[in-house]
Amino acid sequence: MLFNSKEFLIFFPIVFLIYWLVFQKNLRSQNFLLLLSSYIFYSWWDWRFLSLIFTSTLIDYFIGIKIDNCHNKRNKKLFLFISIIANLSILGFFKYYNFFIDSWIELITLFGYNMQSTWTLKVILPVGISFYTFQTMSYALDIYSNNLKPTKDFIAFASFVSFFPQLVAGPIERASNLLPQMLSKRNFEYLNIVKGLRLILWGLFKKVVIADSLAWRVNYCFENYNFLDGGTLFLGLIYFSFQIYCDFSGYSDIAIGTAKLLGFKLMSNFKFPYFSRNIREFWNRWHISLSTWFRDYLYIPLGGSKGTKWLTVRNIFITFIASGLWHGSNWQFLAWGASHALLYTIYFLLKKNLSQPKIIISKDNLFPTPKEFFQILSTYFSITIVWVFFRGESIMESLVYLYNMFYNFSFPSTNLGGFLLIFPFVCFEWLFRHDQKLIYFIDGRFKYSKYNLNRICYYLILFFLIAKLLSNESETTDFIYFQF
């Protein structure tokens, strides 16, 4: 079930009304309704995959209790190992089995052996499996590290694992944030409803009006990269950078807004990433729930930046390659991860450290300083060029795309219309870059005059959104990150 579908427009109001009007005074009934609603929401794609979520839920529910009851560190490690192996086995089979089999066959073929691909299976990738697998794994890891106590309320835990607003594309919530909210009474607050609805509207605008409008332009460039001039191909990458940003951050905004309507507070997943001044800052602003997951559960346990320079470089590459592999079972995702590792390593070697940069840009000025402007542009273009591996169908196609783009570069004569969407959007985000998710704008606290700018802008957004939905070009499209 898609957020931008008629089915969800019917489904969610029903859940909302039952949740607040019927079960407001009964926490357990609310959680049971959330669990049932989440399973219905997920089964809309394929009901058979509910067994995978339920299996992961059962494993980590009992593992969490076992780890907490153990006083022997060796036994604790054993139960944690069981959790990690069980979750990664499920994820590995459905997401990576055919990738590794096909890669093995290709390797054997290089040495002159003919091997039939009879080992490959017709495996369907369950939507959102990477997200909820990491969410359940973090629960066991936090209990093992004594950062969290397990719950014996199975309904609340199962609701945490399958919470439908963020089930299929995040944010990847930590149990330390979301689970206590499942165990606490939620109160109906009018202000939260207003904030949630505004976030949903803003997310739908980014998805339907911007991302979906750029999609056909991106497809045109990647389908015709052998025939287009380099400038047009470069435009295609710029359009894709905003397509994926508006598509994914739009989903996160809708998820956060939907959760807010139900009395929950999810973590922020994006903080104006394309205004970053370096690659380090970009990964503090982009897909924050995933980048912090890899930081806390992989990069830091490997040693982080506390060892020698070359051990730090090793840890950087392991973390980013794992992130690339998390995104997809293809070599181009590994190339995308390795490319970011290279950019990050260059920054680390030049800066000598990985200290946290200041997140605010030109707070007291409308425009960035020349230095900041150069840093933002250079970081953005570096990231945009690397996006080619994310969007391309193969490494070879991505490399040919880049070759044609640089070798045959000229000012594009067509396909410029996308800037009519991108330019005002970038200006709008820049004006509110200090508010993080337009918080003042969305919460209704930012006012220029008696005309109340936020209200006028939201009416305009609503108008263009409805116009887009009702136009002949309008089609219900999946969110990009559903494939991960």
Secondary-structure topology with pairs:
Blueprint: H1 6-22, H2 27-43, H3 50-69, H4 73-110, H5 129-144, H6 154-162, H7 175-182, H8 190-223, H9 230-261, H10 279-283, H11 288-299, H12 309-327, H13 331-351, H14 370-391, H15 395-407, H16 419-431, H17 439-443, H18 453-470
Question: What's the short story on this structure?
Answer:
The chain is mainly α and 484 residues long. 66% of the residues lie in helices and 0% in strands.
Key attributes of the depicted protein:
18 helices, 2 domains
Structural features, described:
There is one protein chain. The protein has 484 residues and is mainly alpha-helical. It is 66% helix and 0% strand. It folds into two domains: 182 residues, no CATH class; 213 residues, no CATH class. It contains 18 helices and no strands. The longest helix is centred in the N-terminal third of the chain and has 38 residues.
What does the largest sheet look like?
Answer: none
Order of helices and strands: HHHHHHHHHHHHHHHHHH
Number of helices: 18
Sheet-strand content, in percent, reads under 5%
Count of strand segments: 0
What overall geometry do the principal axes of the alpha carbons give? globular
Task: Provide the structure class.
Answer: mainly alpha
Radius of gyration: 23 Å
Mean pLDDT: 83
Alpha-carbon distance between the two ends: 16 Å
Domain tally: 2
Share of helix, binned: 55-70%
